[in-house]
Write a structure and sequence with these properties.
Elements lengths: L1 E5 L20 E2 L2 E2 H8 L5 E6 L3 H8 L2 H5 L2 E6 L8 H5 L1 H4 L6 E5 L2 E3 L3 H11 L3 E7 L12 E5 L6 E6 L8 E9 L14 H11 L3 E5 L4 E3 L3 H17 L19 E3 L4 E2 L4 E2 L3 E3 L4 E2 L4 E3 L1 E3 L4 E2 L4 E3 L2 E2 L4 E2 L4 E3 L3 E2 L4 E2 L4 E3 L1 E3 L4 E2 L7 E3 L1
Parallel strand pairs: 1-4, 1-6, 4-5, 8-12, 14-17, 15-18, 16-19, 17-20, 18-21, 19-22, 20-23, 21-24, 22-25, 23-26, 24-27, 25-28, 26-29, 27-30, 29-31
Antiparallel strand pairs: 2-3, 6-11, 7-13, 8-11, 9-10
The structure holds guanosine-5'-diphosphate-alpha-D-mannose and magnesium ion.
């Protein structure tokens, strides 16, 4: 089996983190987003990474995983962004070299990745393609315009209409960005910038060749800070349900006062700190005396000083939060940010290498 992972795009919505690393390499629960996909693609021996942006970084970080996972990774580099469909045509030689179906994945989603179920479902209906749909995440009150929406023929898996980012509510089953196709789909796509959602799916739906399979369990696009935090909570709850050994054991960590917490073994946490629920502490982080962390992510090397408070926020690589400071309301600190002592940040998005010595009370970007 083969898979193509779409790892292009500039990841602008995940700034300031994507100013340091391309989106697929940003850590999620202490592992690059894309490695979650690679690890779950059991049985897939050949992965094509469709890249258009900073390919050197991507290649240098990911090449080493070929050996670790016993797979072949081919980097398919676009000269200009080819969108979400063009990269399939560019990799035609690999994807179309035999009759076997192949997976195509957006790189910025988290879920339980039921790939073998998707393949079995696809093989059973005999159509050209199947996409996974996540039911009910988008309700009438949510923004319908963030996702692709799937409308099936009543009582069937056949998709009747696919509407990318509808302006008005059309339905609540959204495209999860996880597909499997027969190689014949390549006859529909040329090597030029093309959107699979706006151009290829509507045509496949008209031909009654596109099916949808409902995704059970959690799902989230983690390509923006607010959703990245929500996705982290969902993923941590999933680990808890699995009784995963990755979670911090409150019996061993005095600081862990609630569930859904990961603490990297190299992190140094003061026992008088209070951590949880829904916290990821990355490698080489330090958390000082009496610090309080909930619903937040600390990336590698972050330092939370004594009595600081961090909630619903992401603390970037090697950043510092000073003593008695409060960082909350979806604040995101980029790489190497220094928040001085006794500063309050609410919804601040701070670019790398900045030093912050006065409070910010409204959502804003610090450049
Ligand atoms: N190689 C390559 N080239 N990849 C690209 C390009 C490109 O030009 N443009 C985007 N991508 C990749 C992104 O890295 C991401 O993995 C994927 O294609 C989807 O792009 P996003 O920019 O994240 O799209 P979205 O989140 O607005 O919407 C898509 O995902 C939703 C689910 O997460 C659509 O597929 C929606 O229909 C879907 O509901
Ligand atoms: Mg996305």
């Amino acid at each position: 089996l083969k898979a193509l992972i779409l790892v292009g795009g500039f990841g602008t919505r995940l700034r300031p983190l994507t100013l340091t690393y391309p989106k697929p390499l940003v850590p999620f629960a202490n592992k690059a987003i894309i490695l979650h996909l690679v690890e779950n693609l059991a049985g897939v021996k050949h992965i094509v990474l469709a890249v258009n942006y900073r390919p050197e970084v991507m290649i240098s970080v990911l090449k080493k995983y070929e050996e670790q996972y016993g797979i072949t990774i081919t980097f398919s580099v676009e000269n200009e962004p080819l969108g979400t469909a063009g990269p399939l045509a560019l990799a035609r030689d690999i994807l179309g070299k035999d009759d076997a179906p192949f997976f195509v994945l957006n790189s910025d989603v988290t879920c339980s990745y039921p790939f073998s179920e998707l393949r079995d479902f696809h093989m059973a209906h005999g159509g050209e393609g199947t996409l996974m749909a996540s039911p009910s995440r988008v309700t009438k009150v949510d923004e319908p315009s963030k996702y692709g929406v799937v409308l099936t023929v009543p009582g069937q898996s056949t998709i009747d209409r696919f509407v990318e980012k509808p302006k008005e509510y059309v339905g609540n089953r959204i495209n999860a960005g996880i597909y499997i196709f027969n190689p014949s789909v390549l006859n529909r796509i040329e090597v030029k910038p093309t959107s699979i959602e706006s151009e290829v799916f509507p045509a496949m739906a008209r031909d009654r060749q596109l099916h949808s399979m409902d995704l059970e369990g959690f799902w989230m696009d983690i390509g923006q800070p607010k959703d990245y935090l929500t996705g982290t909570c969902l993923y941590l709850s999933y680990l808890t349900a699995q009784k995963s050994a990755e979670l911090a054991d409150p019996a061993k960590h005095d600081a862990v006062t609630a569930g859904n917490v990961i603490i990297h073994p190299t992190a140094k946490v003061d026992p008088t700190a209070s951590i949880g629920p829904n916290v990821v502490v990355g490698p080489n982080c330090t958390v000082g005396k009496g610090a309080r962390l909930s619903r937040c992510v600390l990336l590698e090397g972050a330092r939370i000083k004594d009595h600081a408070f961090v909630q619903s926020s992401i603390i970037g690589w090697s950043s510092t939060v000073g003593k008695w400071s409060r960082v909350e309301q979806c604040s995101v600190l980029g790489d190497d940010v220094n928040v001085k002592d006794e500063v309050f940040l609410a919804g601040a998005s701070v670019l790398p290498h900045k030093s912050i010595s006065s409070s910010i009370f409204e959502p804003s970007i610090v450049m």
